[in-house]
Amino acid sequence: MDTGSPFFGLLLCVAVCSVTFAKECGMSVYYRFDCYPEAGSNQGNCEARGCCWDDSKEYGDVGIPYCFYPTDYEMYQISGPVDTDFGCTANLTRSQPSYYPDTIKDLKLDIYYETKTRLHFKIYDATQKRYEVPIDTPKVTHKASETDYSVLFPSYGFGFGVTRKSTDLPIFNTSVNNGGFLFNDQFIQISTILASNYIYGLGEHRGSLLRSPNWSRFTFGIPTILLILMPLSTVPIRFTLDWSRPTATPTVCFSLTVMLWAIIQPAPAITFRTIGGILDFYIFLGPTPSDVIQQYLEVIGQPFLPPYWGLGFHLCRWGYKSANRTQEIVNRMRAARIPQDTQWNDIDYMQSHEDFTTDSKSFSNLPDVVADLHNHKQHYISMIDPAISSSQPAGSYAPYDDGVKADVFVKDANGKILVGKVWPGNTAFPDFFKPETSGWWNTQLKGFHSQVQFDGVWLDMNEPSNFVDGSFEGCPGNSTLDNPPYLPSLTHGTLYGKTLCPSSQQAISSHYNLHNMFGISEVMVTNKVISQLRGKRPFIISRSTFPSSGVYGGHWLGDNYSKWPDMHYSITGILNFNMFGIPLVGADICGFNDNTNEELCVRWHQLGAFYPFSRNHNSLTCGPKLCIDQDPGAWSSASQDIIRDALTTRYLLLPYLYTLFAEAHINGSTVARPLFFEFPHDPYTYAVDRQFLWGSSLLISPVLDPGAQTIKVTLPAGTWYDFYNGSAISISTTANVTLDAPMEKINLHMREGGILPLQQPNTTTYVSRQGGFELRAAICSKTGTAEGSLYWDDGDTIGTYENGEYIFLKFSLASNTFVSKVVHNKYKDAGDMVLSKVTLYGVAKDPKSVTVNGKAAHYSYVSEVGTLKVSGLYTPMNDTITVKWNA
């Protein structure tokens, strides 16, 4: 059961424009940088800060600041820079304090020329150590011998710019004299001009993929237990793409684990504000969007390779109410022959909502249900909350008693265990940064696993969420950690609203500094424990995320609603998180809150069959009544048929999906991606967020509106083949095309030039993996070529890629010849892999003959669509396979 969602963000901008600043207070309203971001500004207190005031109503744009910096506002002065082994360094000094308390007058700027395409800079206190993020990143001590960027400094004031050498175009520019660069103990602000109005990301959000630059405001780090509408964690990434030249550059800031705000204005420009830490940015030069993500993940870590079964279909709800009912749903799925690999239970399986327990009455036979799943080669996942019940008599609840003995819980400002409230009532919160916590967590999970043989873990409520503000005793009223000098408008009004007191203490720092890393600290420990406990790849889904979370687990998009717009917005979520390095992501199919309806749920299953992480999950109550069932087996036989077909198609495509996850694990590529990643020169793709790609070769175009029987899709220039029958659509320029979309169909198209590895599907991945493979090629209309690949291993062993225990095949097609070639093979069961079928889309003429490895083969040809099918094969794939046809 989920009641909120945590996130970190990414901002992406495209194209390049020049900027000219006016002087003093006469600049364009779009270049006004807010000098009084808190509430209550007026002319008097604005001018007391040395800023300009203009409260004219004529502009019409909501968000234009009345109080803004003049161009001659006092700023830090820079001395240097001085060359260093790693790049350069400079001193920043300010003679007078700013209007926020505890101005840090002496700063250090270090710029690291880390690689040819990666620049790193830090701004920090020159005299006193401040908090920095405890995540391992590359430590570079010597600058790159060659770079694609240049760093420029102004003759006066603070600032620097970064340009791309090949174009001399700016890609980062902090020299915004009226931007008010401030560095106080609990208020840090920096602004930069952006290169365009094409802006994406800044965290998970309910809306379009393309961000509005019109005074948009984003807050990161707000825990909420009811809505998915607020972003809940930090770390923006900024992309800049110059579309006249295929280049991309994001800036990543991830030292800001305390509250962070971003304000985008139509200059375009962005201002970052935070209330602690240092400024720590990376700039990546691409040149392509995919290159940028790969360079980003070289810093934070590449995603984990999930177990193969984890890519099957998952089913859950809050409200099964018993193990028997859980078994009934599983049986209903089997009877309907609908694919399912994993069954989940939400919080209702626990005894009084207490972690590591099962309800002694309604879920007493849960172990039997799990055993039945395992007997059918299916899997089981249970939810675990981080909040540990603390109100039982001593000796009656081992997780809390053991935690007290091991001293693993977060402490309040006075050194006592901080007590809040979550589902079981009074609760304590583990400090996963403390070394002792790992052993304690291992003991609890191991003990629970001895009762219920779970295969993966669902980590919920780990922002951390709290049903009271701070603690039952409140938070110290005189603490600037709990009540900092600056806060924007917050959902709960304070930093500690529905979470822990920022002044509470953890092993390595205050919760003020560590709040947004609570979730990832839990995921990291859980990943290690589950790996050791099961001896197989861990499968973890977490609500809270942070850069590097994808190294350890996946994410779901929180409490959505059973509404058509939420289905659309889920596409934005999966695309963003793939850019964030967390490709294992999906939304609750059919919606979590409110009752769904049959049409919506059928269409959502068609879309959800192509989420990287595919799970149906809904709530206990919808208003005063229980929510209806929404699992596939709950609907009419006609709807079951449609859902079965969609999920069967997913299982057919699992070898391709698994290969994409392997590529993400190996080189940091995305699994699901927006169209502009593949077509960066095509401005018609920049705003497309109702379609998406798996890899580079499969376009998914779901129906997202009620009653629709057709769908308007954007097809970039080229030839696109219908996935099901090979009928082609060829267009010379990008166009909107109307396609038939009856209830029984989700439109899938293969991009010309791609080859997809497929496998005969069944109702579980275990059985599917025993089927024969199919290779389906979409021949390029201009060159007559195509290519693809397959990564394959046992799907569950840890470190198969690192240990070389896999087979990797490359597929190529040219001159009427299709070749499957073994590039690497140390997979022990490679001999069991057989090719059953080859399907070729775009064959212009009926072949006179077809051979496979020199021998005549059975084939059929459909002239209406130019599809050639070579079937009836039983050809081992652990050696070269050659298919030839004569036109």
Automatic annotation (TrEMBL):
Protein's UniProt name: Putative lysosomal alpha-glucosidase-like
Keywords: Disulfide bond, Glycoprotein, Glycosidase, Hydrolase, Membrane, Signal, Transmembrane, Transmembrane helix
TM annotation in the entry: 215-235
GO cellular component terms given for this protein: membrane
Family, per entry: Belongs to the glycosyl hydrolase 31 family.
Pfam families linked: Glyco_hydro_31_2nd, Glyco_hydro_31_3rd, Trefoil
Gene3D superfamilies associated with the record: Glycosidases, glycosyl hydrolase (family 31), Golgi alpha-mannosidase II, Spasmolytic Protein, domain 1
